[in-house]
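job 3f2a | input accepted
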Amino acid sequence: MKLGTPLRDVLATTPYFLKTLEKAGLSTLEDLLLYFPRTYEDRSIQKSLARANLKDTVTVQGILVDKDNIRTKRGYKLLKALFRDEEGNEAEVVWFNQPHLMNMLTLGKSIILSGKLKYEQRMLSFQSPTFEYFVPGQSLVHFGGITPIYPEIDRISTEWLRKKMHDVAHHALLFEETLPEEVRKSRGLMGRGEAIRELHMPTSREQLERARYRLGFEELFLLQLAGVRRKLSFQRDAAKCAPAIPLDAEIMKEFVEQLPFQLTDHQRLVTYQILRDMERDVPMQRLVEGDVGSGKTLVAVLCAYHAIRKGGVQAAIMAPTEVLASQHYKSITALLAPWGLNVQYLAGSLTKKEKETTALGLAQGTVDVVIGTHALIQEYVQFHRLGLVVIDEQHRFGVEQRRTLAQHGFPHVLHMTATPIPRTLALTMYGDQDISLISEMPKGRKTIITRLVNPQDRQKMYYFLEDQVRKGRQAFVICPLIDESEKLEDVRAVTKEYAFLQEHIFPELKIGLLHGKMKAEEKEQIMTSFKDRKFDILVSTSVIEVGVDIPNASTIVIEGAERFGLSQLHQFRGRVGRGEAQSYCFLATDSSQKGQSQRLKAMEKYADGFRLSEIDLELRGPGEVYGIRQSGVPDLRVASLTDLPLIVEARELAEEILEKDLDLNTMPVLKRLIDGDTSYIPE
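job 3f2a | predicted structure (683 res):
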């Protein structure tokens, strides 16, 4: 038998079941053995019903002494049996609508039952327990200790899967070992095949935990090995290609002293980390994570100014939308133009002549800083000497888009994101980058007051919102959908909500509408009008999620709040609280029950985006939070991406191995896994 053997040659089952397994991605013996249990139950056999705990699942051995099929007055079919344990204690057993069991159940034969036990009408009773006959000399499949519970596949039950796994688990020893022997010995790790077999047929709780640790460590180690190797390989191949820019404290001091506000300690620290990176002739690859409003953009401006003044290079700043790019252009020009720097804007909405003029300035070196969108990576854009690339909200760009901009002479690359990412995920998703955090907020920032709003409180919310507008403030109203054609139950479409608020709730106020299906020019015009206070309220979809800065907006209402993840809700909340006034965030639902969710309550309790991202990861998992394919987050079988100590341990080992042998020539199995097509390595 080989691991690649098709399941049709391994399992005795029907063509329908084989087809169902294939649809679920299980075509070979290897696929089946790597389909791991989702949890385990302790089904150790008890000798006596008298000592059973009614709150727990009870597994007990005995015999059936009577059985009968009964039809109730309502037409239901019941199979009733009388069970007697080895001490003579009895319990009634009932199975609903399973008349076929009549022929399967044999009186007087030793049987094991497992299920919840109740005490009703002065008698113990089981309802629809699972069962297995005890045959001397044969091992039990479903009972007798720690029992695996598999995710069901269509009509294929966990019991069926458990029986098949029991039959083939010994073939797990065919799996090739992936970890070097010295690594396994130094950490006391179980062999790979032994660990896989243990997951399907646990011999003890201790051995099961050893197996899970072994396979979880392997998954995380291979991920870290791939990320660290990409980083070290890039640094080796690109050495002496980037402009080495010595840190000049006087240049930075001169600029910082002219700012109209003070830098936070975190901004100073991260700026220093970046400038130290840029002293090397190896291209920097650093990710700056900063909570909403923490001042990441200013850090990028400081580094760009230093690179231009000290290194004589150009800087490019790329944003995902024209709204955000235009906003950056205005704010950055205000900071850099007084120092004689030429800052230009490049986006798809510009005229052909405007684009050509900017492109010519970049090629000739007369433009110091260019700020734009995807237009920066078009073929006609060439740089005289590009030294620093800043990619804002980097997860909005594809890998190839980021690489295209970074290929102009191997510049230093600074990635930025306002999406709070837990450290465990950051180490996994961005293993090829150095990571800096800005979690300290500028002085004077007030905490945004956040409240859940159930249907009965909606009118109070409207009164409050109108009062804020009367005081000269503005407000956002966010909806998940664009129009009614996309309608989901209890979710307010943005076009319908816009009409409802304008006609019935705030007829005297000026309300604007914004959504992603509008043209870029139209969105830009609406945001500009809102910033210029031509609208009191802006009803929008998630297009306003990233980076929009409206200091006068003090209130945001998020409709259908239960449909958004915590990280996204926190991003929305960051659209307010940018001015001096106290700001408010209302999480509105159309169901009182939905308003009680753990996620929404966490929004009320916490203002720290990183804490919220950790909670979101725990509640929903990385796939739901960040999107497996979009983010490169791996779909792990055993390991948990919340296990920071294990991730750090795996990364340290990866660094230790690669420092000795970057090409993995002495470890051919690892080299094949990293270089080949394998599910261990994220895209």
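job 3f2a | Confidence is low (pLDDT under 50) at residues 628-632, 677-683.
job 3f2a | closed
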